């Protein structure tokens, strides 16, 4: 399958789950996964989802602007770079989030999980 | 050595070379390296540097705002996420470039080269 299409499908699935059932993101990380959120390093699916569900907003809607994808090496991973906007419920203006990097690794069943995740809000 | 310090040193070295001797960046890529530049995919050190040296500006100065780093897996690689500003000679305002992701891989001599490189200008 086309890696760009796989990356795009993963990103769509990830943000659809983020916007509708944030706790469900636990299924997309594993114990060795890492998130760097605005410089804060967090390891493991449980801790990562605890962070994401504790963000100070409930309802949100992501819209994706760009998805770039490259194979990361012989282990079958993919690097995915995402930019887009984040609309918070009750806020007039969308935030540009622009800076999310995922390193996806294959699972034994042929799907992918997030091994590395780096998030920076775009303050421009 | 502290991975964050290694990543910071690499990024400082990379942009110092970009701003003073862009063709010299060839030494920081290898034949298997990939660059995605604003969605355009380019492979190999020679082609990558041809792209970087053909950008429509001569003198420039990068200033780095954030550097995030994570180990990318058992092969000893590092993912480095960089945000910052790009000042072009003769332009009044700096551009936010904000979106550079490097995947660094170790060399046999103990240094690193860029295996993956994804660049997006920040249009915010």
Automatic annotation (TrEMBL), chains A, B:
Domain of life assignment: Eukaryota
Residue ranges of every copy of the NTF2 domain listed in the record: 6-121
Subcellular location(s) of the protein: Cytoplasm; Nucleus; Nucleus envelope
Gene Ontology CC terms: cytoplasm; nuclear envelope
Keywords: Cytoplasm, Nucleus, Protein transport, Transport
Pfam name, any one: NTF2
Subunit structure: Interacts with RAN1.
Stated role: Has a role in nuclear-cytoplasmic transport of proteins and mRNAs.
Name assigned to this protein: NTF2 domain-containing protein
